[in-house]
Amino acid sequence: MIALITGATAGIGMACAKKFAAKNYNLILTGRRKERLEELKKELENNYAIGVVTLSFDIQNKEEVQVALDSLDNAWNRIDVLVNNAGLALGKEGFQDANLEDFEVMLDTNVKGLLYVAKWVVNGMKERKAGHVINLSSTAAKEVYPGGHVYCASKHAVDAITKGMRIDLLPFNIKVSSVSPGMVDTEFSKVRFGGDQAKADAVYQGFTPLYAEDVADAIYYLASLPKHVNVNDLVMTCTAQANSYITFKE
Ligand code: 8X3
User: Fold this and answer.
1) Which residues are catalytic?
2) What's the CA-to-centroid distance between 1 and ligand 1, angstroms?
3) What total of structural domains would you count in the chain?
4) What is the CATH number of the domain that holds 82?
């Protein structure tokens, strides 16, 4: 079995790579940071009897995505599971103070990048009449919170895309799911706050958040279900979080 995981250089993507490797999947790992991908490939191939191919590209660049995926040979282009994970948030200022370029990067990555990869992978799945696309959505797709505007919009779009793909791909026996986590302690907040570690740490203080491994376990659970079973959307938060904007902090 082959799984392609985007955004595998950190966080949920990296945790998925480790989880799927431990379950004997051969892996195609993609991300921007080539050295990190190579390190992960080495680690996984040393620890598990699997093969790993790395593809380094900027998911915002349609041509780069296509060239990279087209480079997969016949042994590797039959993808069973796509974990469409690459995504980010930039900024949490109110709409009036937020940055237009940040809007573009979020939409280009979380929506357009996800589509570029999905479109390529679904082509092959359609021919083989088999496959599973798992899109990383978020609780931010369920309710909009203050300062969430465009990030929430991008995840609402992921929800709509997932629902639409699921309808249209029914005749091709392709499963389409989304996993929608709340707060997960990864580099997510450090990226969101422009590298401000103190601000990022404060997000996860006063409660126990989800960890990347928790989400990877859920994603693998979806991928491991019998052929006739699909989880359409799995919304998950830590116990201290009720929805996208209510968290109990002590
Ligand atoms: C989940 C992150 O900031 O919306 O995608 O809780 S956040």
Assistant:
1) 151
2) 31
3) 1
4) 3.40.50.720
